[in-house]
Design a protein that fits this description.
Helix content of chain B: over 70%
Number of strands of chain B: 4
Oligomer: heterodimer
Strand order of the largest sheet of chain B: 1-2
Number of helices of chain B: 16
Shape of chain A: globular
Distance between the termini of chain B: 49 Å
Structural class of chain B: mainly alpha
Largest sheet of chain A: 6 strands, mixed
Distance between the termini of chain A: 20 Å
Strand content of chain A: 25-35%
Strand order of the largest sheet of chain A: 5-6-7-3-8-9
Number of strands of chain A: 9
Order of helices and strands of chain B: HHHHHEEHHHHHHHHHEEHH
Structural class of chain A: alpha/beta
Order of helices and strands of chain A: EEEHEHEHHHHEHEHEEHH
Chain lengths: 248, 386
């Protein structure tokens, strides 16, 4: 499939990231068309989370450029929503589910200005969408892992972005939550949004995603799942002779 | 109460309030030891500031000392970033070094001024009312009241303005960055406010006890609430209460005011730690006991449901069959009876209608693996849950 003729959501050129001189991502070139639901797969330490963080400016790359809809990230911030790994925050923080979701609106508010009724309303709508409305006043440590992940998803939803980045949204969640999340992600894709998801479970890639990027420090392959999700690319990425049963 | 007594309590109360505010964020950011470091390393800043200004109450002196405080944080972070030592080691390396520079400077040059080590460590609240702010011979009250009052006003206004930013960057730094807020700026802002506050309160309570004023109220409030705003209000409340009670305790014992304030803070924490309704130690013990009782009851009822044979359900054979002590078995049977879940007929235990209904629903929930539903069920059937 020729990517060039489509509108690109993200274009990455020669991106290199290093922690203490050790390259974590090396010379990545990546084109992600608009409107795909994409999995980033690769072994542990492949730089999957780092790739997302570098795109979002959380980590500074030592070389290369990232363009979002043709412009640098800083100019496109309002079009991007980010769901970090659940373990990156302290769930004992004294706050409620609703309050965490409201944080998604802070970007559009900017400094100093406070959230009001409009922000509260969109947060409640997002909670409803992920099936967590009845937990809105629950302290966040009182939620299960799956519920916490739904709260994070709701927080991204209120940002009403065009591109969503999600770092392992299915880690430690129950099957019901996984189905609920993927349903929402597919709806977003069908509404024309672009979704980039760090994903671990290779078995579910063909079922959940229509686009995939293989990553292992270097970019191995990227394209439609039906064209490139095969044993050849899996073996190149994971090193060993990898075989995944893909339903015909 | 004399005017001086009222003034001392006012200064102590304001100092406690001013410390409690940054304290909440330091506790939530797991950075409380940084406040310990700042409180010591501002000493050289104070001494150098005094050499320059020749005035112990100059605002420049406070500013200079606060800069040393921020410098401490920068140094600690710099050492830590080399990854050669961990954060706690870095803190332990930086602040004694800076503090000792201050101690030497005082001993060498400031023997004739009242910057002595005792005052540095423990403060001199009792003397605070003697140092007045005079403008055109008009007595405007103790100087330290104005100093700590202005600092409190500053940190309150910053808190109100940047509450949203502080909350978000404390909870989720990654989100704050991706939304275009600078967590680094907020971090150094918080460090600056902490430093200024510590310098201001330092005068009143000294380097060691100012740490207690920062950490203890926030740590106590953290055990009592699930809301950041309530945690702030409670911290300020605990700070002020301890200041006032501490003052009168010192008065009664004829002891150090700062020492008494800190002791009251410690005792308050202990009380909450033991008796807090949700997270206290005693409530946790009680909860665990209750849980164990409920699990035994559940196991017992399911056993009855599972076994048709009357021998398995005989009062005297219960212990052998579910392998329980006699006392535990008796407690559980009594409990089940009290809750109308069983009926005993000729020493053989049968599930009552309510018991049958309970076990049936419980089994359904256990097999579908829904722990929250089990809780609802227990609430419905166990009378002792109230």
């Amino acid at each position: 499939m020729n990517v060039k003729n489509e509108k690109l959501a993200i274009k990455i050129d020669d991106l290199t990231v290093a922690y203490d001189y050790k390259p974590v991502l090396w010379d990545i070139d990546l084109k992600i068309p608009e409107g795909v639901l994409m999995a980033i797969v690769g072994p542990n330490g492949a730089g999957k989370s780092t790739l997302i963080k570098a795109i979002l400016g959380i980590i500074k790359p030592i070389a290369g450029s990232v363009k979002i809809f043709g412009k640098p990230y800083k100019a496109q911030r309002s079009k991007v929503a980010y769901v970090p790994q659940k373990g990156t925050v302290d769930w004992d923080f004294p706050t409620t589910a609703l309050d965490v979701v409201m944080m998604g609106t802070y970007g559009s508010l900017g400094w100093i200005k406070r959230p009001g009724q409009a922000q509260r309303k969109s947060a409640l709508e997002a909670l409803e969408k992920v099936g967590m409305l009845s937990f809105k006043n629950r302290q966040i440590s009182q939620l299960s892992g799956g519920q916490q992940q739904r709260i994070f998803l709701a927080r991204a939803l209120v940002q009403n972005a065009s591109i969503y980045f999600m770092d392992e949204p299915f880690q430690g969640v129950d099957a019901t939550t996984e189905r609920a999340i993927i349903k929402i992600l597919k709806e977003l894709r069908d509404a024309g949004k672009t979704l980039i998801v760090v994903h671990h479970d290779l078995q579910t890639v063909p079922e959940y995603f229509n686009w995939v990027t293989f990553l292992n420090v270097k970019g191995i392959a990227s394209g439609p799942v039906k064209d490139i999700f095969n044993d050849d690319n899996l073996t190149k990425t994971y090193g060993i002779n990898y075989k995944v049963a893909i339903n015909p | 109460m004399s005017d001086a007594q009222i003034e001392i309590q006012l200064i102590a109360g304001l100092a406690a309030m001013a410390c409690a505010i940054p304290g909440v964020f330091l506790v939530l950011r797991k950075m409380t030891m940084i406040s310990d470091a700042i409180s010591h390393s501002i000493l050289p800043g104070l001494v150098v500031g005094f050499f320059i200004t020749q005035d112990l109450n100059s605002p420049w002196l406070i500013l200079l000392a606060a800069v040393t405080g921020v410098l401490t944080v920068v140094l600690v972070e710099f050492i830590q970033k080399t990854r050669l030592v961990k954060e706690d080691t870095a803190i332990g390396l930086v602040f004694p070094a800076l503090f000792s520079i201050g101690v030497i400077l005082i001993a060498q040059n400031a023997n004739d001024v009242h910057l002595d080590i005792d005052a540095v460590l423990l403060g001199e609240l009792a003397f605070a009312p003697f140092d007045r702010l005079l403008i055109n011979n008009l007595d405007l009250g103790p100087k330290s009241l104005w100093v700590i009052g202005s600092i409190l006003l500053l940190s309150l206004s910053l808190l109100i303005l940047f509450f949203k930013e502080l909350k978000m960057s404390t909870f989720d730094k990654g989100l704050a960055t991706s939304l275009g807020f600078s967590p680094l700026l907020i971090h150094y802002g918080l460090m600056s406010v902490s430093s200024v506050t510590i310098v201001g309160a330092f005068d009143a309570v000294g380097a060691v006890l100012v740490v207690a004023l920062i950490i203890a109220p926030a740590a106590t409030a953290y055990l009592l609430t699930d809301s950041l705003k309530k945690m702030l209000v409670l911290s300020v409340f605990f700070g002020v209460i301890s200041a006032v009670i501490g003052y009168w305790l010192a008065h009664w014992l004829d002891a150090s005011i700062a020492g008494s304030m800190t002791s009251v803070l410690g005792m308050l924490f202990l009380l909450v730690f033991l008796f807090a309704p949700k997270q206290g130690v005693i409530s946790a013990i009680f909860k665990e006991k209750q849980q164990r009782k409920e699990v035994s009851l559940l196991v017992f009822l399911l056993h009855l449901q599972n076994h048709e044979d009357p021998r398995e359900r005989h009062v005297n054979h219960l212990q052998e069959h579910i392998n329980w002590h006699r006392i535990q078995a008796k407690t559980v049977v009594d409990l089940a009876q009290k809750n109308n879940l069983i009926e005993i007929e000729n020493q053989v235990i049968n599930l009552s209608e309510k018991g049958l209904q309970f076990t049936e629903e419980a089994l359904k929930y256990i097999t579908t693996n829904k722990p929250t539903a089990i809780e609802d069920l227990k609430n419905k059937f166990f009378l002792f849950r109230g």
